[in-house]
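Example 9 (inverse folding). The structure is encoded as follows.
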């Protein structure tokens, strides 16, 4: 068991105190810091970025080789933590709680936590499990000074958390699963190959969108509008994996029967899962991702419309044209023509 005491007054200080225990090297570029470690204690990375509006991004992409407990003193630095486990899980309790009161932050679950001033947060990380954990941290006073209009839409309970700048109360919200957050947070990794200030600005935009999704989920759950489903979390994970596979190979001939056999889920469970996670039936989802792929091909490739139709798995050009116009309000030929004109003007 590894215990790490966190007494720092910033995200940067927190990561440095983690480094002192598990080792590794911190590098910095354009305000983005990365702790990379390959030691007996852990393998992977922790990155953090602090923005000037009172918000920090802290991302774990790491496997600990022993059980780890983070003991975070809330005397100096006591942000609101908006946490999401994309892979793996972790656990938490407040300092005044007994170990029997430890709660699990499960995969795909939106969680919002803050301690009271002078208290402590205990974070527990498992051994030998790949963790991909996204944490958005808000320093309340600075956030309110910069983004005062950003709290207008909060419900009463969460509003009280934001304006509790003296840190008099604890707050813990363990929400229902949210796959929209998974997709948004996965987008962070697609920005990794970009460079410079543009990269940081794109990440900042994703942070704000992710924060908005956390808040929207808490608002939805506070009204008792919880998803009504018989599916287990493991079955929802299978549905999401299947949906990602379809999106990566849209041209394949998918049938509900084949997808059911491949996934091990009944056709009824597949339909329920797709409706819950994507608000579409299986057939509607397949059509949606094919149209999105077609639009990308028309925008970025030299293929003509007939070639695009074949490439995304449709067999009828007339049917494709009909549903394309229904979805985007413009025919494929008009869309393609507009793209070509735009490129020609840009080249002048």
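The amino acid assigned to each position is listed next.
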């Amino acid at each position: 068991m590894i215990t790490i005491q966190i007494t720092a007054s910033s995200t940067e200080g927190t990561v440095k105190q983690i480094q002192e225990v598990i080792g590794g090297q911190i590098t910095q570029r354009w305000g983005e810091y990365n702790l990379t470690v390959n030691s007996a204690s852990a393998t992977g990375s922790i990155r953090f970025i602090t923005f000037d509006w009172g918000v920090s991004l802290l991302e774990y992409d790491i496997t600990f080789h022993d059980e780890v407990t983070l003991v975070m003193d809330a005397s100096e630095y006591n942000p609101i933590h908006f946490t999401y486990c994309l892979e793996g899980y972790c656990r938490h309790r407040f300092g005044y709680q007994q170990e029997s009161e430890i709660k699990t932050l499960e995969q795909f679950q939106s969680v919002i936590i803050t301690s009271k001033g002078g208290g402590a947060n205990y974070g527990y990380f498992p051994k030998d499990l790949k963790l991909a954990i996204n944490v958005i941290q808000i320093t309340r006073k600075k956030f309110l000074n910069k983004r005062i209009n950003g709290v207008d839409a909060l419900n009463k309970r969460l509003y009280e958390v934001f304006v509790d700048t003296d840190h008099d109360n604890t707050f813990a919200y363990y929400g229902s699963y949210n796959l929209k957050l998974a997709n948004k947070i996965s987008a962070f990794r697609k920005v990794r190959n970009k460079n410079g200030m543009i990269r940081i600005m794109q990440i900042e935009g994703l942070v704000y969108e992710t924060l908005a999704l956390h808040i929207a989920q808490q608002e939805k759950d506070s009204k008792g509008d919880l998803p009504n489903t018989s599916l287990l979390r493991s079955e929802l994970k299978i549905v999401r994996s299947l949906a990602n596979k379809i999106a990566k190979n849209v041209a394949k001939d998918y049938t509900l029967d084949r997808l059911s056999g491949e996934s091990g889920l009944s056709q009824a469970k597949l339909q329920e899962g797709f409706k819950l996670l994507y608000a579409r039936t299986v057939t509607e989802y397949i059509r949606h991702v094919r149209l999105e792929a077609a639009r990308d091909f028309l925008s970025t490739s030299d293929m003509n419309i007939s070639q695009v139709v074949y490439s995304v798995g449709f067999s009828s050009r007339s049917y494709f044209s009909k549903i394309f116009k229904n979805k985007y309000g413009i025919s494929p030929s008009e869309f393609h023509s507009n793209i070509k004109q735009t490129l020609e003007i840009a080249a002048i």
